[in-house]
Design goal:
This protein is of the alpha/beta class. About 45% of the residues lie in helices and about 10% in strands. It has helices at about 20-35, 35-40, 55-65, 75-90, 100-105, 115-145, 150-165, 175-185, 200-205, 230-240, 255-270, 270-275, 280-295, 310-325, 345-365, 395-400, 450-455, and strands at about 215-220, 245-250, 300-305, 330, 365-370, 400-405, 420-430, 435-440, 445-450. A nine-stranded mixed beta sheet has the order 3-2-4-5-1-6-7-8-9. Helix 3 packs across helix 4.
């Protein structure tokens, strides 16, 4: 009868001399000699990375036995008893190392943390290598498949590769003493452009403690023709042109010509309709020439994709974060994006909203999402919008860190005493104050400005 390879004595098996195989043996042996290494390595090592099932079960046996110990080593005899007990009750699906193999293994232990950590890192690196090559095989198979879908499959591959690149095993649990010092330092250090994206509005920045923060999802919402696209582009201009912070604008509503017209009108203070009609006078041309230098130097990326999905956006953001240090994305507007398939439109928008919030947090950027409101404001006497007016999904409100509702009285009443004014109603501000900031609506210049600047 042929002897099962799992039950054969270690010396009768083919020699395993690869560095990875040797590292797995040393790690398994080391935790027998020093069970406390399991805790010390926990933040950076996952026993699932041990490819040899028998050695991985040795680790689990030590982990089980040490629960009843306070100090000291765990001899190979105790490990053998635990493994045999698991095998007898059917808990262990393979035949464990026998007593001879365990005794030989025990002699290979490294008892210092630095040595054990080195070999544990070798095991982890080899595990990542296996997954990396496996991903390559999977990508190749997907590429040759008749059902290949470029958008879905490339996005899936990028996400899988990101998962390998990130150290997802790092335990982020900390004692309060390790983080409270940072809170005190922040308490006496005003935010700068390094950790905030200025909005370009003095009162708005004051309300947001210097600007918009990384990881935030900011929703700018309004009824059609109120100016949400103008405000969204204004936030992008302020960050990229005035403060030279890399910004991506994804415009599903305006084409690139219209985007260019609006930027030039605002930065050079040229009437937008003059640009569209091609009748800008000499003074306007001179202002445009002066503005061109700062506009062309700005790290402002514009895209007028007619179809934009979350995977496509993630791919762009990932690239620009790595190559340009992207700080903010402006999306005009969320209801025009291609949403993930779901049972109904509300669920689709909810998935899209959650995906955008997670993207902001994952890449450490600010995501400004323009959104359309339902007809709720038009049914009120004062026409003022509310957060509950967000169209199609309450998930947008739930996921947002900040909701800015744009309101202009003169959009409903041309004779209003407040003609030319616009209210930025802060309807939600997670961890901060809410309120209203009044600005001047210079829509002929395609911009909103501080009231003081309009004086």
């Amino acid at each position: 009868m042929t002897t099962d390879i799992w039950e054969a004595p270690l010396d009768d098996q083919p020699a395993r001399t690869s560095p990875a195989a040797a590292a797995e043996r040393i790690v398994a042996a080391s935790v027998m000699a020093r069970p406390d290494l399991i805790d010390e390595l926990a933040a950076e090592f996952d026993p699932a990375d041990i490819q040899d099932d028998r050695l991985r079960w040795v680790w689990h046996a030590v982990d089980e036995i040490r629960q009843s110990l306070t100090t000291g080593e765990i001899r190979w005899q105790a490990v053998d008893r635990q493994l045999q007990a698991w095998k007898a009750n059917g808990y262990m699906p393979i035949a464990p190392l026998d007593t001879v193999a365990l005794s030989v293994l025990y002699d290979e232990a490294e008892t210092s943390y630095s040595a054990a950590a080195y070999w544990a890192k070798t095991v982890t690196n080899e595990s990542v290598r296996r997954r990396y090559t496996g991903l390559g095989t999977d990508i190749s198979l997907r590429g040759r498949s008749a059902g290949f879908d470029a958008e879905t499959d490339i996005a899936a591959a990028q996400d899988a590769l990101d998962g390998l690149a990130r150290n997802e095993k790092t335990d982020k649990t900390k004692l309060v003493r390790d983080i409270i010092g940072g809170a005190l330092e922040r308490a006496v250090t005003p935010p700068t452009n390094e950790d905030r994206v200025p909005t370009g509005f003095v009162d708005l920045d004051a309300m947001f403690t210097g600007g918009l923060a990384p990881g935030q999802m900011v929703v700018v919402a309004a009824r059609p023709a109120i100016g949400k696209s103008t405000l969204g582009l204004g936030l992008a201009r302020a960050a990229a042109i005035r403060y030279e912070l890399p910004v991506l604008v994804e415009s599903l509503e305006m084409g690139e010509d219209e985007l260019g017209n609006n930027i030039l009108a605002a930065e050079a203070r040229i009437p937008l309709h003059h640009i569209k009609q091609g009748i800008v006078d000499d003074a306007g041309v001179a202002r445009a020439a002066r503005a061109m230098d700062r506009i062309t130097k700005a790290p402002l990326y514009l895209s007028d994709e007619t179809e934009l999905s979350l995977p496509m956006l993630r791919g762009k953001v990932r690239h620009l974060v790595r190559t340009a240090g992207l700080r903010m994305v402006v999306i005009d507007y969320i209801q025009l994006m291609q949403a993930p398939k779901a049972e109904n439109r509300q669920a689709e928008v909810a998935k899209l909203s959650r995906g955008l919030k997670l993207m902001a947090k994952e890449f450490g950027i600010t995501v400004v999402v323009l959104a359309q409101l339902n007809r709720g404001p038009e049914q009120r006497t004062d026409k003022r919008p509310m957060v509950s007016d967000l169209r199609e999904s309450g998930a947008i409100e739930q996921d947002a860190d900040i909701v800015i509702l744009l309101h202009r009285e003169d959009a409903y009443d041309k004779e209003s005493a407040r003609a030319g004014e616009a209210d930025f109603i802060i309807g939600k501000h997670r961890g901060g104050p809410t309120g209203t900031v009044t600005t001047a609506a210079q829509l002929h210049y395609a911009q909103f400005v501080d009231m003081a600047a309009n004086a």
